[in-house]
Design goal:
Layout: H1 3-19, H2 25-34, E1 38-42, E2 46-49, E3 67-70, E4 82-84, E5 87-91, E6 97-99, E7 119-124, H3 128-145, E8 148-153, H4 157-166, E9 173-176, H5 179-184, H6 199-202, E10 215-216, E11 219-220, E12 223-229, E13 232-235, H7 237-243, H8 251-263, E14 268-270, H9 282-306, H10 314-328, H11 336-342, E15 362-366, H12 377-384, E16 392-395, E17 405-415, H13 420-429, H14 460-470, E18 474-477, H15 485-500, H16 506-516
Parallel strand pairs: 2-3, 7-8, 7-9, 14-15, 17-18
Antiparallel strand pairs: 1-5, 2-4, 3-6, 9-17, 10-11, 12-17, 13-15, 13-16
Helix pairs in contact: 9-10, 9-15, 11-15, 15-16
Length: 520
């Protein structure tokens, strides 16, 4: 297809979309792919002058506004600019690309530079009390720095940050609860290295894996300011003491405890709930991730996330076998995997606080730090009073010969503006001192820095989690949150649930997940 012909088609599609009568962007992309073009679709608006093109050898691609279609013909024709429901980047043997777009990106030469105006804006997803505490911490820091920082919390953050960047009016800084959206905006975000930030210095005291979550092509587009941890095994200390159980520190000791619970008919080793409405199955993904990270190490774990290592691989099969040994063998879970598949993750932990096998007592539950919000009211009241006699946690032990690992998530800081004020704010909120101006009082906050002063925390759980993080060699960011949506939040949930429920084998579940992977 010639470039003039392609331009004509794009213009007609754009006109149809603008009038509400055209085909979807998906239809446009399929049409172009059928013609041999590679199509990349970004979930945002863009203005494209589909009839402008000229001959160039290479053009640095940036997303957002006022893009031109450039190809093999050096003749320029003008037409009315059309608004697409996505920005479409095209490459072919003729070197067809979208160019002339404004925004941050490749060379760091299209955004603001210099000292700044003394004001910095931040957008994030958290609101209410957490947002107030965050702003208060920044206000205290501003008294010393002289930089006024304004935080804007938006419950529809993922849509809002894309829309604002597309309109050419992004915040100076954005705080992303998941790396996927951040990585989709690397054409408008600045690499932190371009701001003059010493990334290596900031991450020097962090677990391996934390500083590279948002690295793309060797450049760092985001760093965590707050994290959460998932490799926690919750237990009832009073119940452990009554049963004569000791907190395990090794995988072998963990196995021995399970054997003791079953042999003495004390109850069930594990509390497990996979039910979560439309998201049923996500707790199973966490279990699998725990052992892929441990058996494979960080490199193979990230290769699995990228789709380069299959679910049917030896590595993931080994991890799956370990999960089956822990949870699906007879007597491990009350009612077995079938009951786990229909038990709510929110209430599964309630059985930590009952007594006797006949009442369904279980002794351990692997779950993230957030689960404390779902415990019975009397237990939450004890936690608030600092009474941990009936609830505490330890880190899930790693199998012998593997690294001590922590699975978790976090909030990542990215920059749309390149100036000294933005640099200073990013350095503060991603640095070891953030939280010392008050934000550490938020029970949800956990610094990514091993050297953070834990005396600023207000709960025993924060202190304990920080100590476990500091003793971990590896940090793995939740894998399912980084996989393609149709896998990580789709087939992986449903297929693992079917496996737990006994509706298919692990091998069948893994094969189905691999088959659903896009572009494979």
């Amino acid at each position: 297809m010639s470039v003039p012909a392609l331009a004509s088609i794009l213009a007609s599609y754009a006109t149809g979309i603008e009038k509400g009568t055209g085909s979807s962007v998906g239809a446009i992309s399929r049409m172009l792919e059928n013609q041999g073009y590679r199509v990349v679709i970004f979930d945002m608006l863009a203005r494209i002058d589909a009839h402008r093109y000229r001959n160039v050898e290479s053009v640095p691609y940036r997303t957002v506004t006022d893009c031109r279609l450039i190809g093999e013909d050096n003749t320029m024709r003008r037409s009315q600019q059309k608004r697409f429901a996505a920005a479409i980047a095209l490459t072919s043997a003729a070197g067809l690309v979208l160019a002339g777009c404004t925004g941050g990106g490749d060379d760091g030469d299209s955004g603001e530079t210099g000292g700044g105006d003394g004001e910095v804006t931040i957008m994030g997803a958290f609101t209410d009390a957490q947002a107030d505490a965050f702003q208060a911490d920044l206000d205290a820091w501003s008294e010393e720095s002289g930089i006024t920082v304004t935080y804007d919390g938006n419950t529809d953050f993922q849509t809002a940050v894309v829309a604002r960047a597309t309109a050419g009016n992004p915040p100076d800084i954005a705080i992303y609860p998941q790396p996927g959206v951040l990585k989709s905006q690397t054409n408008t975000l600045f690499p932190l290295e371009d701001l003059g930030i010493d990334v290596e210095s900031i991450i020097a005291d962090e677990a391996n894996g934390l500083g590279t979550i948002a690295q793309v092509d060797g450049q760092t587009f985001g760093l965590p300011y707050s994290i959460n941890v998932k490799s926690l095994v919750w237990y009832n200390p009073s119940a452990f003491e009554a049963a004569g159980l000791e907190v395990p520190t090794t995988d072998a000791e963990l196995t021995a405890i399970q054997d003791q619970i079953m042999s003495e008919d004390l109850g069930y080793p594990w509390c497990v709930g996979l039910e979560s409405g439309a998201a049923t199955g996500w707790p199973a993904t966490d279990w699998l991730e725990e052992y892929v990270l441990r058996y494979g190490g960080l490199d193979d774990y990230n290769s699995w996330i990228a789709g380069d290592i299959l679910f049917e691989s030896d590595l993931v099969t080994e991890a799956g076998d370990k999960v089956a040994d822990e949870l699906l063998a007879d007597g491990k879970v009350n009612g077995g995997g079938q009951a786990a598949a229909t038990t709510s993750f929110q209430t599964a932990g309630n059985q930590l606080f009952v007594e006797g096998k006949d009442n369904g007592q279980c002794f351990m539950m692997r779950q993230g730090s957030f689960i404390a919000d779902f415990f019975p009211d009397d237990i939450k009241a004890q936690i608030a009073d600092g009474d941990l006699s009936n609830i505490n946690f330890f880190q899930l032990p790693s199998p012998e010969g593997t690294d001590t690992a922590m699975l978790g998530g976090g909030d990542l800081v990215g920059a749309f503006t390149n100036d000294e004020d933005t640099k200073a704010v990013v350095e503060y909120i991603t640095g070891v001192d953030f939280g010392t101006n008050g934000y550490a009082s938020q029970a949800i906050f956990l610094s990514p820095h091993n050297d953070f002063d834990t005396s600023f925390y207000t709960t025993e759980f924060q202190v304990a989690a920080q100590e476990l993080l500091a003793s971990s060699t590896l940090f793995g960011f939740d894998a399912s949150d980084q996989m393609p949506g149709e896998v990580g939040a789709g087939t992986e949930w449903t297929e693992l649930t079917s496996w737990f429920a006994g509706q298919q084998t692990m091998e069948q579940a893994f094969a189905a997940i691999d088959a659903s992977w896009p572009d494979r």
